[in-house]
Amino acid sequence: MDLKEILEQSKEKINNCKDINVLLHDVKSSFLGKNSELNKIFASMKDLTNDAKKEFGKQINIVKNEIEEAIRIKREELERIDLENKLKEQTIDGTLPYRKTTEGAIHLITKTEQELCNIFTKYGFQLAEGIEIEEDFYNFTALNVKKNHPARQMQDTFYLQGKNENDENYLLRTHTTCVDARTVIENNIQPPIALISCGKTFRCDSDKTHSPMFNQFEGLMIDENLNLGHLKFFLKTMMKEFFETDNIFLRMRPSYFPFTEPSVEIDVGYSIVNGQIKIGGNEKWLEVLGAGMLHPNVLKNMNIDSSKYSAIAFGCGVERMAMLKYGANDIRQFTSNKIDWLKHYSFGSFCC
């Protein structure tokens, strides 16, 4: 069988093939495989002179390339036909009556985030969104976290391989405060500013009350003459609306955060009713979030005049707020696949 005949037969079989698996295995193997006629002709070249080998080998390669190209074109054609058939089979008839189902539900985390966001958007706060793989600058440096701060160490932060153009590390964000910093700096926003952000954060910690991945809710307001009184107003309002009670008592304790000065821990009053925590009153105290006045260095890094403007900032764990309101008692269950737990703590799609 000569090369011209092999080429004609291969094209005929390729064009008549209707199955992509047959094309890529049987047809391809029969014309390009180890036992194919083309390979036998190639093996017979050992008896030719060097010049003849060069010329004949060139002809064999031309035939081989044509067969491969024909197979490629036929493969694309069969893949397109297969896709078209699947799309026809999966067509949805929009005139059919809908089927009501109760299987879908809103997760407790999503529900809690919606509630917190709805509270602050009523007061003019805008929701800022950010990336989960963050740069060292926005996660630490811009927020006045010094190079030797313990939070930068590997036991607290998940660092990733590779560096940016400024030779800075990439990492999984340890808080959503970096979302506010990136939003203000990248967009060159000037006061008045009122932002909220929420989403996943990551730290090297795991037990009944801590998770290596958890959700955080943050708030930032920058304007003239802001003080701790404004901060307390917004936090008390948040607690009243979120826990659906006016009987809210807050206690501020001095604390330390690199990005706020002064910094405070916020405790909320509660009592024990039937073995469960009930928010309200001042019988007992429970820490719920951290807050403070934004540090002047952070304002400077945001290109905002700290001599003219001041800022309040706060942050809380979404899981913690959800646990206090809805009675969940183990943070690890929020990311479990236990159907009974998910059904018990889920909400309908029109819950808000």
Description:
- This protein has 352 residues and is of the alpha+beta class.
- The chain has two domains: 3-89; 108-344, 2-Layer Sandwich (BirA Bifunctional Protein, domain 2).
- Helices cover 40% and strands 23% of the residues.
- The chain has eleven helices and eleven strands.
- It has helices at residues 3-16, 20-32, 37-43, 50-89, 108-121, 136-139, 177-187, 228-243, 296-301, 318-326, 339-344, and strands at 126-127, 133-135, 159-163, 169-172, 193-202, 213-223, 250-257, 260-273, 276-279, 284-294, 310-317.
- The strands form two sheets. Strands 1, 5, 6, 7, 8, 9, 10 and 11 form an eight-stranded mixed sheet that branches. A three-stranded antiparallel sheet has the order 2-4-3.
- β3 and β4 form a beta hairpin.
- α2 runs antiparallel to α4 (50-89).
- It is elongated and about 100 Å long.
Please mark out the parts with pLDDT under 50 across 5 or more consecutive residues, or reply none.
Answer: none
Question: Structural class of the helix and strand makeup?
Answer: alpha+beta
CATH topology value of the largest domain: BirA Bifunctional Protein, domain 2
Oligomer: single chain
**Shape, principal axes of CA atoms:** elongated
Order of helix and strand elements from N to C terminus? HHHHHEEHEEHEEHEEEEHEHH
The beta-strand count equals: 11
The CATH superfamily of the largest domain is known as Bira Bifunctional Protein, Domain 2
- Domain count, please report it: 2
The proportion of residues forming helix, as a percent range, comes to 25-40%
Largest sheet: 8 strands, mixed
Q: Please state the average pLDDT score.
A: 87
> What's the CATH architecture name of the largest domain?
2-Layer Sandwich
